[in-house]
């Protein structure tokens, strides 16, 4: 059941940078994405085409998408909340449009000024607009719990996934926006989605807010999930979800899978080198662990006695 190959979508430049208060210069974003393009990642979520008032740090989305040097084997993704975002993303040749909505209406209103029903109505129009110009994925925020409402019933998420599948959307991402999911819950929901919709590409988007992020990724892998979102250094978080903090850390996830003999396609040393540039870029330390501790096979000098 568990796959020997997994696929990682690095969301540093989108989820990671959307919550950073200080402006990150466009050239620095492009340099980081170009470095990531050479690390073997399956996808890179490069930006979001959202309102610059809502997400000021990603106001340069178009410039980023046109400024990067695209590797042929990487899909470049952008997060999109509405029709205007689709237009902007298609105009710069984005490979995959990642539509975003919330499973809970209160987070949907805070983040997007939309309920789940309103988002789904827009998704139908947005999917038509995309046609065959780009792949389409739907990210469902607060799929495992909401900072305003608490429990989000699994049935509600399954109903949303069913409506997304009916629209002909290629994939769905279950997002643990504020890191409340536990491994048993993750395994159960991922299994239920995969069982009902075998043709839908299923991705898990864990946050590590409560230290359960890698355990959740592992639990999903154990029930057959092969696609994961993660951010370099464990950056990230939704500015409209109180208490949100970083994604699972890309290089820590790759390190875990590689130690287990699971192929990520990624060059861990290259990811670590890219992660080391982050503090200079954002002006603060990151929660990433392997970048500080070194890889598990690290050898220290023998004590001199
Ligand atoms: N790109 C750029 N600008 C956009 C836009 C888009 N995709 N969608 C709307 N706008 C602009 C409108 O042109 C308008 O500009 P104006 O004030 O200069 O006329 C303004 O934003 C308001 O438009 P409106 O359609 O009324 O949007 P809203 O104020 O209801 O906001 C969203 C809705 C979805 C655009 C906004 O909440 C948003 O971008 N949220 C993203 C949140 C996010 O990314 N969170 C983190 C990821 S989980
Ligand atoms: Zn996120």
State the major sheet: 8 strands, parallel, barrel
Give the tally of β-strands: 8
Give the overall average pLDDT: 98
What is the C-level CATH assignment? Alpha Beta
Work out the helicity level.
Answer: 40-55%
From the coordinates shown, what is the CATH architecture? Alpha-Beta Barrel
What is the overall number of helices? 13
The end-to-end distance, rounded to whole angstroms, is 50 Å
Shape descriptor = globular
**Percent in strands:** 5-15%
CATH fold-level label: TIM Barrel
- What's the SSE pattern? EHHEHEHEHHEHEHEHEHHHH
State the strand order across the main sheet: 1-2-3-4-5-6-7-8
Structural write-up:
The structure is a single chain. With 305 residues, this protein is α/β, with parallel strands linked by helices. It has one domain: TIM Barrel (Alpha-Beta Barrel). 40% of the residues lie in helices and 14% in strands. The chain is built from 13 helices and eight strands. It has helices spanning 12-18, 26-37, 61-67, 83-91, 105-112, 116-130, 154-166, 183-196, 213-222, 250-259, 268-276, 278-282, 290-293, and strands spanning 7-10, 43-48, 75-80, 96-102, 135-141, 171-175, 201-205, 227-230. Strands 1-2-3-4-5-6-7-8 form an eight-stranded parallel barrel, surrounded by eight helices. Helix 7 (154-166) links the parallel strand 5 (135-141) and strand 6. Helix 7 packs parallel to helix 8 (183-196). The longest helix has 15 residues, at 116-130. It is globular. The termini are far apart. 50% of the residues are buried. The model has no long low-confidence stretch (mean pLDDT 98). The structure holds coenzyme A (COA) and zinc ion. Coenzyme A is lined by residues 18, 48-51, 53-55, 79, 81-82, 84-85, 88, 100, 111-113, 141, 238, 240.
